[in-house]
Every structure is written in C-alpha cells, then in structure tokens.
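hey can u run this one w/ NDP bound, need the structure tokens asap thx
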Amino acid sequence: MRAIRVERLGPPDVMQLQDAPVPSPAPGEVRVRVEAVGINFADALAVAGEYLTRTRVPYTPGMEFAGIVDALGEGVQGVQVGTRVAALGGSGAMAEYATVPAAGLIPVPQTLSGAQAAAFPVSYFTAYHGLKTLGRGEAGEWVLVQAAAGALGTASIQLAKAMGLNVIALASTDEKLEIARTLGADVTILQDDPDRVKKVRDAAGGKGVPLILEVVGGKRFQESLDMAASRGRIIVIGNASREQANLRPVELMKRNLTVTGLWLTSLMNDAPATQEAARALAELVGSGQVVPQVGPTYALDQSVQAFEDLLNRRTTGKVIIEP
Ligand code: NDP
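ok here u go:
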C-alpha cells in the first residue's frame, strides 16, 4: 500500500510517499480501509517536533480518519466488517490502510460521507469540551470563537448555536467571516481590526465576553484577557501563533478570571466526560443540527501541500486527505 513516512522531523516537506506493507490488526484492533484522513494543526506540529508529546520517528502521521472496517483482530466484538467508522488514534492514518484499537472507534451516523466522518472526532469533541465540559457555557451567554472558519472554529460555532449561546467570531479575512456568519455567528470581527478589543467587548453588552475559546496564543493571549468579562472563563485550546504567551496571575485576580487548559487526548481517557460528549454529539449530528465542515481535499501525494496550506492559513473547515 501507499503510506506517508516521516524519517526526520521538520517542515511539511519531510513527508515522503512510500510503499509499505498492509498492516495486520493486533488482538483488540481493527483494520480500516482509509477513505479520508482529517488533518489537524496538531499533525503539522507533530511532524515539526513541536507537539505536546514527543514525536518518535520514523512514523506515519494521521490521528483522525474514517473508512470501512476491513478486518478484525482477535477478541474484537461488536464491530462489523464493511461498516463505515471514524477513528481517533495516535498516528498511522495517512495510508491506504490503518489499524486502530477497537476502543478508538467513534460511531458515526452512516449518513455521513467518509470525509464528513473524518472531519468529526477531533473538532467536535474538542468544541464540546471547550463549550460545555470545561467552559460550562449556558444558553444566552456570549462566547468568543477565534480562527472561526477553521476546523475547530466552524465546529465551535455550530455547537455554540445549538446550545443557545451567542457567538462572536474572529478570523483573518472577510471570506472567512462570511463562513462564520453562514454557520450562525451573531457578530463577526476581523482578527486584525485595530479596534477589535473594544468591538468584542461592546458586542457582548459592553462588559466583555464570559467564555473565550483561545486557540491563537502568543501576544493574542493578552488580548483575550482584555476581551474577557469579569469572572470570564478562558479555555486555552491551542497556540496557532506558535509564540510564547505571558500570563501574570495577578491579572486573573483583579477580574476573577479563570484560565483552563484543554487537551482532547487526555480528556478522551475520562470515560464519563467522553460518553457524555459522545451522547450529545451523536444526537446533534444525527438530527443534522450540526454538519461536519469538509474543507479542501487532497490526494495522498499532495500531503505536503495540504500541510503547508493549513499552516499558512489558506484553508477553511477540516483539511481532508483521501488516500
Ligand atoms: P484550523 O483549521 O483552525 O487552522 C488554523 C487556523 O488558526 C488558521 O486558519 C488561522 O485562522 C488561525 N491562526 C491564527 N493565527 C495563526 C498563525 N499565526 N499561524 C497560523 N494560523 C493561525 O486548525 P485546527 O482546527 O486543527 O486547530 C485550531 C487550533 O486549535 C490549533 O491551535 C490547534 O492546535 C488547536 N486544537 C487543540 C486541540 C486540543 O486538544 N487542545 C484539539 C483541536 C485543535 P485565521 O486565518 O482566521 O486567523
């Protein structure tokens, strides 16, 4: 089969397309014929060696994918060969076939296409935990969504609206803001608008925003503190700027702010939180209230281009690779 291989860490062009043996599922694993891989910002950071965990090379990237179950390892029960599944694993999905522990399978409505299913797990579970599990968002509250046309941003807008929240969306271009409005954002503001802090505070009734999903980091993190309402909750989910942010705890004291980190990988080990999110999301996706946003789609031999487009802010929705 064809698979992407990374032998040394670095920019996207360290990825090479190679021939590799079709993997056999170990006990407890299933093998999936990969239809679509969801490419996350985290994949690009992992290839660069800048992710939260150390990347061991050589390896095949790709943590999120969807496809058709092709073979079952010993002891796997309750999974049917021939059904479409989404999956969340550590790596290995940027290939024609991938194996994953059966526990890593995410049930998806069979009405979703392969690309929609691959666009679902990371962004929607993260958005749910940011808005609900950790963010404790309540209907009628305002939430600020940064990088609003991206994979996580589009998921966050849809879920926030489904939960009855009011959404302020920030993004870098008018085209991206138009996408945010189409998904239901109530107020849209250019990320580089010189008056962005005042405009965001004014939009939320002049008092600042009670809930902020922070994904840019760096010097923008200070702005999030300035945009927050008293007792505001800032959920730190990403650092797309790849710059260090400064946090002075006394600033939190003055306005009783809360800053909470969110990492989906560790939250997935929290069984009750995962089950609760899965239940809520299955209902919303099943009823069509939220629809995974498929972005630009690339072939396996265009993987370098896909990663570069994601890092250079040229994409909206979930970047997809179809092997
Ligand atoms: P996106 O599809 O949102 O793409 C990244 C977006 O970040 C860009 O389109 C861009 O939007 C924005 N951005 C802002 N500043 C920069 C910058 N300096 N360089 C590049 N991009 C920038 O990607 P994802 O949905 O995969 O991820 C979004 C963020 O959420 C990332 O930081 C990611 O690491 C994080 N994340 C974290 C998770 C967790 O478990 N903690 C899980 C999922 C995502 P614009 O041009 O509009 O500013």
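The first strand starts at residue 2 and ends at 6. anyway lmk if its weird
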